[in-house]
Every structure is written in structure tokens, then in C-alpha cells.
Amino acid sequence: MFVAARRIGSSPCSQTCTPITLEGVILGIDTSIGTAVAVIEPDGVVRAQLDSGDPRGHAEVIGDHLARALAEAQISSGEITHVAAGMGPGPFTGLRVGIAAARTFALGRGIPVVPVVSHDAVALDRLLLAALTDAGEGRFAVVTDARRREFAYTVYEGMDDDGLPVRVTDTALVPRDEIDATLEALGARRLDATVVPAGMLALAAARAVAAGRRIAGDDALYLRSPDVSAPTAPKRVGG
Amino acid sequence: MNRDEPLVLGIETSCDETGIGIVRGRTLLSNTIASSMDEHARYGGVVPEVAARAHLEALQPTIDAALVEAQVSLADIDAVAVTSGPGLAGALMVGVGAAKALAVSLDRPLYAVNHLVGHIAADILDPDAPPLEYPTVALLVSGGHTSLLLVRDLTTDVELLGETVDDAAGEAFDKVARLLGLPYPGGPEIDRAAATGDPNAIRFPRGLSRASDMAEHRYDFSFSGLKTAVARWTEQTRAAGDEVPVADVAASFREAVVDVLVTKALAACEAHGVPRLLLGGGVIANRRLRDAALERAAAAGVAVRIPPLSLCTDNGAMIAALASELVRSGRPPSTMAFGADSTLPVTEIQVAERTADRAGSS
Ligand SMILES: [Zn+2]
After folding, report:
1. A175 Cα distance to chain centroid
2. Number of Cβ pairs < 8 A linking chain A and chain B
3. Which of A67, A156, B43, B173 has the CA that lies 20 to 30 A from B163?
């Protein structure tokens, strides 16, 4: 007999993060701007890092990037212990490709997904660089293109004891011509990002897991409702 | 990989159904579907961004549920299959990204396939039906497509005879339902309303059915003119101060759609000397369409095949079934380079096949 079609409701996925060990290997995936994939060790050693640098073509590129990153890191998919997923903000269509990929890659190996705010990776990159050069970053805002004449921004100031960037504001949208005034009011220097380093995304995830913290929710950071309006009365066709 | 009875997991996200199917060879193990239809109801049609968001959230729980039902684990899967197109681009991309990562994660081959050909492949999962005979004409009718195909071989040779030049038939049902003040989705509502109506009460136009249409659009469909005709008729009736006879309008509209679908499908059978017609797509759930097709096909000496209705609506099982046939016929997997192709032609049954391997493998 036939297996009947089963209909199930959609529900947000929930992940439980297993503790990270020094033997962990983290796969980072972010498609909030380009298609960025990295494989790192928990101490931050980057074994592979790829980025298309192209704000389009995520669905085309993601598979090759994953396969190449594993090859360059000289590991099999079975050795990955955690998948860091860049949750945005970013243009929705591309952003979803990476989140979907992170979830099914993890599902395939029975390992956890660690969601990370994509701006955190940019901030961590900048903060680590500043620490190296002793420059001191002060308060700064990671700013990315949100399309529709808007920017997405998140304000940061320093790193906490777990080595994670401290968010001063949640991620938000602002009209392009208001960004500078907004950041000035917040006392934050503007840092435009055109790349999300997947290695830093994975490192943020590794640090969050090591500290037993959740640093992002399970939902994509859309920041906008779907662009739809309920239909009006049917149009008259004349006569 | 087991090439005779491959265990294939199929992912379908071309419209508003997140479909995960698992087949072993030609045996259906699971057909699991999460639909975002309810979320589209208040908009009167599928909203692409709403559908794409729902796919992302539904994927993992739907895969989990499908595995449980099929009583297999991901480690057992021989190949992953996914719809590359046609469909809504943003929705398709969720499935493509998910399928590629799953294939890399499991280190298994990936088959990117055509959604429309998948609708035909649904038929091979019917354990009670004799094997599909070739060639066959296929009529696929849903909210997203209305296509008439000539299938000479499921995995190698599918030709597009005609398709809708504007709305899909299912869309016409939705739009006319709205005109009549009926809720979404329109198909079942029109059906209900039509039950007590006279299908011959109003003679609505049959799109692209005039002699002058035959040269260029013999097997094409058009439903936007029909929708406009229904709108005009109801407006005029109201303007004259009369009440709109909803049952008669629904029945007459449905008859116009069914008539043109069946007429063109049987014309294609006759012109190509093919006494076989396969029906697929969600609108096949419409009882009047099935009855009219069966009745008129019998009179024309055409045998009709209809896959189980649970496999006519969009689903992942049909995608897995098509990939399973590709594996069984020794076809190499797709390369990783394919994307979501919202207008993928039906002649492209498998996308981005590894052509370099092709000679060696077959
Ligand atoms: Zn379909």
C-alpha cells in the first residue's frame, strides 16, 4: 500500500550546543554578503578559508566552497564537530542559502549548529587586529548594505572575558542618509564591511561554545517583515 | 552505491511546499510535506518571500520526520536529489543550498533535477500501476504551471508541446475564487460552489482555442482572458441589480478550464498518435477535471494514468524518484555548479550533469 503524505507543521529548530574540546574542528558558513566558508581549530588556527566576494550566486557556489574548504583543510566531513552559521543581517535570498547549508551539513553529521550574528565576525576580526597592534578600537559600528536604501549596523565596544565582541546595540536598520547622524549620536566610529570573514565567524562560535553561551538566536536576522500587503478588493475590469 | 535499488532523499522547495521524499529504487518510503499555504491565505496567493522563509524553518524538521517515517538514517542514503527549477527562485535556492551541503556532509552524489519531469516520475512510485509506457503525453496542472509534454523517455527525452502563456490553471482558480468572494486556495472552494451549479449556464471563453490560434498556440493555454470574462460577467450582473449566481458561475468557469485542458491534451495524443495520457500536478485533485479527462479519453481510446493524489501535489518523493531512475540508468551525478533556475526548460531533465564522466559510465 501507499505511504500517505505526511504533513507536519514548521517549527523553529533548536540546537543544543555540546561542549567544545581542543580536538574540535569548526566549519564556518556565511552568505550574508559573499559566499564565505572556513574550517578552523578552536584556538583560531585557520585551516581553510574561501570567499566568493560576490553578493550573488550563493546557491551556485556554496557546494564547491564546502568541498574545497574540506579538501584544503585536509579533513573529511566526519571530522567537523560544529557548524557556525552566519545568521545575518544580509540580503535574504542569499543569506538563507548559507543558513540552510549550515543546518543540513550539521544534520548530516549529527553535530550542532552554532548561530552567530554575521557582524560579530567582522567585529572580532577588527578587535583581534587592534589587540595585536595595541591600537585600541574604542566604540565602533559594523555597517553593511541592507539594500532598499538602508544600512544594517551593530555597535561594538571591546571584547569580554570570553574573547567575544561586546555588542552595545542590537543589529538594526537605518536609512542610508541617516547612518552618520545615527552613529554620531551613539558615539560609534563607522566601519563599513564588504566581507564577513568565515574564519572569524567560526572562532566566535568556538568561543561561545567554550564559554557555554548562546550569542545569537536560531532565526535569520531579517530585520524586515516579508514585503507583502493583503490584497485589496478585486480590480474592476470595466463595463 | 546500490545502483539497482538506490536509497535516495529528495528535496523539493520550488513553491510553497517543503517536500522531503525518501525512495528505495521505485519504492516509496516517505513523502513528508510541510506547507506554508496557510501563511499565504490572507494574501490570496503564494508570496515568494513568505514561502522562502518557511522553507528555511521547515527543512530540518521535515527531513527528520521523513527519516523517522522511512526508518532509515542519513548515513544509509545513497544519493541526494533536489529540484533545481522551474519555480520561485528564492524558494528554490533554500533547497539547493541545503541539498549541496547535505551531499558534501554525507559525501554522497547529488542529482539536480527538473521539477516538471519530477511530476511525471511520481507515477513510477505507484506500486499498483503497470510500468509507464512510452511515449506518453503528460498534462501537468498546478498553481504554478500548466504544461503539456510529450514524454519519450523519463530520463532522456521530454519535449514541451505547450504551456500557459499567462496564469497557471491553479492561479485562475484562486483569482476567480476571489472574484466570487471565496477563500484561498480557490480550487476546492470553486469545486464546492460548483457542486450545485449548471456548468452550461454561462458560456465562458476557451483560451487559445480559435482556429487562428492553432498555428502558434495549438497546445498552449491562456487563462487570464477567462478570468477577465468572469469578472466582467459578474460586474454586469451586479450592475443590473441582480444577484450573482455563484454556483453557476463557478461551475461554468470550471467547465471552461477543464474543457480546454482536456481538449488540448487529447488533441496532442491524437496528433502524435499516442494513446496514453498522464495527469499530474495539484489541480488534478479536482474531481471534475479527472472525471472529464477519464470520460473523454475513454471515448477517444486514450488510456489515462493518474498517480496517487498525495504524489500529484508538489513533493520530494517525486524528486527522489526521478533521481533514482537517473542512478538506475547509470547517469553520473550533477556537478556542484548548478543553481536555482526559475525558468528551467523541461528538456533539461537533469541539471549540470558531469558530462566528462558520461561516456565512461554508460
Ligand atoms: Zn509542481
Report:
1. 22
2. 189
3. B43
